[in-house]
Amino acid sequence: MKSAKTKYVILGLLSESALSGYEIKRIIDIRFHFFWNESYGQIYPELKSLTKSGLIQSMPCEGAVQGKVKHALTESGRSVLMEWLAEPVEKESVRFELLLKMYFSKELEAGIMIRHLTDFSDSHRRQLDILEQFQRELAIIGDPAGNHKDILQVISFGEKVYRAYLDWSAEAVAYLKGREKT
Amino acid sequence: MKSAKTKYVILGLLSESALSGYEIKRIIDIRFHFFWNESYGQIYPELKSLTKSGLIQSMPCEGAVQGKVKHALTESGRSVLMEWLAEPVEKESVRFELLLKMYFSKELEAGIMIRHLTDFSDSHRRQLDILEQFQRELAIIGDPAGNHKDILQVISFGEKVYRAYLDWSAEAVAYLKGREKT
DNA sequence: GGGACCATGTAAATAGTTACATGATTAA
DNA sequence: TTAATCATGTAACTATTTACATGGTCCC
Fold this sequence. Notes:
Chain A is mainly alpha-helical. Chain A contains seven helices and three strands; from the N terminus they run αααββαβααα.
């Protein structure tokens, strides 16, 4: 874990527009759902440290409703972001408890494993629907910043991978049903 | 992170045969490479704690070469494993730095992003080859324990997902090459 | 006035990696 | 004899989650 990425996710999001910590969290939860996650416990301390090192600038929100703070990227923040973008990508990290269970399931009742698989399948079917809806929305609204295509490319990854999940889980269920009968 | 899974991976592997810590690590690195990982810093302390709580039994290796220790599952270990197998699966965790970079790459030179994508593609192509080779090996050797089919089912997941990665990265490279030319 | 959601934050615990120390065995 | 690999382990560090505290706003 050479370096935490929280820093760069924040920098990246702020490169498009000034945001509050809460908004950053929401965007990650919704838009990055299928390939990233961060918790408040990482975001807020990181925002503080980025402000201290001058990579972002933080000012109370204009409407000044409550303690709400907007954070904006500084020039040095932008150059740190660009440097990171150019660096080689570290290997993705992936952990599927489901596959562990599948691997060890020899003595497990097939019905239980089938249940795990259908839960998996259902939840990814829902995620796929959300992705497709987001895709349609992007197509409808205009593209003033001209970055829809990059975003669509990222969504396309989610679609392809989720379809692979669904394809696999159908296959695995079929296999287990066969095993069950014998 | 309700509970660490290291415990169950170990229990699962020991349910098939007695193993040393080193062997456990190797199996995870090789066979589970595409969906799991553990470090020695997790494995050895966990082996100690599992021994203390009686879920596994540890005895010096027969050949008694050096400090080598074999660990075997106990009856209570087996029942803890079976309980865990039946419990609902927690959501997988997945983190793709590549997609983060893709998402923020609007102002990045296309060539750099293409390089990231080809690195990604190359490494997963190699992984896919390894998976396919392992699959062929399983087909050749016999299946005394009768668990090859479950293992093949898990490998099939890796294949489908890796193919989706390769498919996507080709598409993404094509898109970026188009963007580059304009 | 209550529930949903907006909003910021921290402390403690847990999880996980990395770097190191140590030494045996095997094969070139 | 040297390099690779087998083998066990720990300490320090880093990353991440979880649970909590606090209070505002919006709408029914």
